[in-house]
## 1
Amino acid sequence: MTKLKWGMIGGGEGSQIGPAHRLGSGLDGLFEFTAGALDHLPDAGREYGQRLGLAADRSYGDWTEMLAGEKSRQDPVDLVTVATPNSTHFEITKSFLEGGFNVLCEKPMTMTVEEGEE
């Protein structure tokens, strides 16, 4: 069976949610951790991603870099998890959905009714 290529935004070193998602994604063997923008500090995120086994060209400095990088690939990720601070969920989730990606967003997806309606 082909594994789904999975990317994560947030969940960097020292977070609680990052390890929870990475461990959970490996339990059934259906996902391969392929790409990530893991920290609000670009260099720290890139370095941590590579320590976790991501290829250097798929260990991104921020989510906008990841979106552009994955959109331009022949083998983009199949699914992105948004595990960033709550106030950033809407913008990141919307951008990846508009980019054609499947998204799993931590709750809450939005911070306002207007964002939810949009």
Note: The chain is about 35% helix and 20% strand.
## 2
Amino acid sequence: MGILDRLLGRKSGGGMPELVKAILDQFGGVDALVSKLQQSGISEQLSTWVGHGANAPVSKEQVTDAIGGDAVAGIARRLRIDEDEAGARLANALPKLIDRLTPAGSLPEGGIDERTVNDLLDGILRR
């Protein structure tokens, strides 16, 4: 299993990484998640994830503040991990996920559909 798979919470046996599925389900998809992040205190970091170049890091505390403690708690329950671990995994996974979903350096017009997300995750899982 690769490092990104572990960061994304992939469980042995394959399938969509559980952490990514949990966060996308929590917010109703990538567009809603990005919108939430744009309105939060990490919009500056988000712009580096979408844009070209290095991704700015984000802490688990910043992620928790950005998406809300209830959202992190729900993801933690779903993954059967503690909230601290869920925040840390999200802090590691979100920059990579958003970066890979925006290879042109911007959000695609009309948003990012579920098939694009699934294709990306399938590619990650095959590595």
Note: The first helix runs from residue 3 to 7.
